[in-house]
Fold this sequence. Notes:
Radius of gyration of chain B: 19 Å
Binding site for carbamoyl phosphate (chain B): 59-60, 109, 137, 140, 265-266
Number of domains of chain B: 2
Largest sheet of chain A: 5 strands, parallel
CATH architecture of the largest domain in chain B: 3-Layer(aba) Sandwich
CATH architecture of the domain at 10-20 and 32-67 and 86-155 in chain A: 3-Layer(aba) Sandwich
Function (chain B): Catalyzes the condensation of carbamoyl phosphate and aspartate to form carbamoyl aspartate and inorganic phosphate, the committed step in the de novo pyrimidine nucleotide biosynthesis pathway.
Oligomer: heterodimer
Keywords (chain B): Pyrimidine biosynthesis, Transferase
Order of helices and strands of chain A: EHEHEEHEEEHE
Shape of chain A: globular
Number of helices of chain B: 11
Enzyme class (chain B): transferase
Strand content of chain B: 5-15%
Strand order of the largest sheet of chain B: 7-6-5-8-9
Distance between the termini of chain B: 19 Å
Catalytic activity (chain B): carbamoyl phosphate + L-aspartate = N-carbamoyl-L-aspartate + phosphate + H(+)
Largest sheet of chain B: 5 strands, parallel
Number of strands of chain B: 9
Amino acid sequence: MSKKVLLSSKEIQIILNRLACQLLENHSDFKDTVLIGLQPRGTFLAKRLTDLLTKEYGVKEINLGSLDITFYRDDFRRGDKTLEASKTHIDFLVEDKKVVFIDDVLYTGRSIRSALTAIQSFGRPAEIELLTLIDRRFSRHLPIQPNYRGRQVDVINGEKVQVLWQENEGQDIVYLINE
Amino acid sequence: MSELSVKHLLGIKYLNKNDINLIFETADHFKEVINRSIKKVPSLRDVTIANVFFENSTRTKLSFELAEKRLSADVINFSAAQSSVKKGETLIDTVNNILSMKVDMVVMRHPNPGAGVFLSKHVNASIINAGDGAHEHPTQALLDSYSIREKLGEVAGKNVVIVGDILHSRVALSNILALKLQGANVKVCGPKTLIPKHIESLGVTVETDLRKALNWCDVANMLRVQNERMDISYFPTTREYTQQFGVNKALLESLDKEIVIMHPGPINRGVEITSDVADSNQSIILDQVENGVAVRMAVIYLLASKIK
């Protein structure tokens, strides 16, 4: 197994600032916008961006939620393992709001497909956008593309992208793992 | 710890502590789901479930059916009263006929103890026991423990008394097994005639004085007197039973502490429990019903993920 650093802590910091600015450009005061981190790994990125926007860029208030897509996945009973759920926490209405899905890695697009179904249980959003830190090119199973991307990478099958966060794993770093 | 150790839910007897924890953690997520404005998830859209009831039921059947529908499973219902069982068909034949319509899971209630275990050995589907005679009623025990956990934070170390007709109660046996597995202390209380011999071998103690039992406990689970299962008289009159083993407001208020009141339903108001107690703040009877759907969704979801 070999491990290569794709993004260092400093590069991640620069990218997060850029993504925050891009969100700001499109959503200005975030009054009609809600950010939804996708469980389990998208929630760290969503929290980071929210903190950046409120602390560094002067946004007063941002509605931040987390959405678990386990029960909406299309591979139930198709693998060996029982799919384990995480917590969904959305304490606001998404009806007529601009929703931004936030996830760490965009790969096949199937999680996003599930998230699109799942969010309907909370109302009918005005529009939905997608933000991902890493966009794996050439690996999509569905016609889904991000509106905001941190870094686009070419990764072959058998390779894995691993995103680690300071608050969970002790450091910000993105690895490319060859198994 | 991410999957159940069993393929069927035949009784609490076959579960371990990790299974129960997994069911409760999964039920937490489903409880959030059933409190959304759209209460449905598509997980089981390619699973078909048959509810096969050889004995009457309102609550359990509705609860299972709702849980199945909330998970998007296809549901077929069968009750013995309107079926070929009356024409002499055997249990295995009945169920195999249902299964040949491509059913993946069977939820069964049957008057004979062990019917679920018997069926699981002869048919190729996942079986959930929804009550087999006076033997087990595992989902009821799970939702009871889940409700205690929700109300008091945890089940371990809590004192629970089960009051009433222990002899004819599948709820009592499943509850005793589930509570002991999670480390609770369990007492049973009722007329001596309605307490089975050697029940101490399950690790419970027997108390015939209701006031003493209530003063000891954190939770009292009041059972219904099952007149339909009684072929002889077990106590002189209903009035005498109520005087000795019925819980009323005055009795609750005279206790040293505030205890939690549970009842698996259906309630005989004025017999084992008075209306003002059943409807009081101390009662979590309706929480039990709500939790029943979430717990059954968890059980069905976890068992369905093992169907290949």
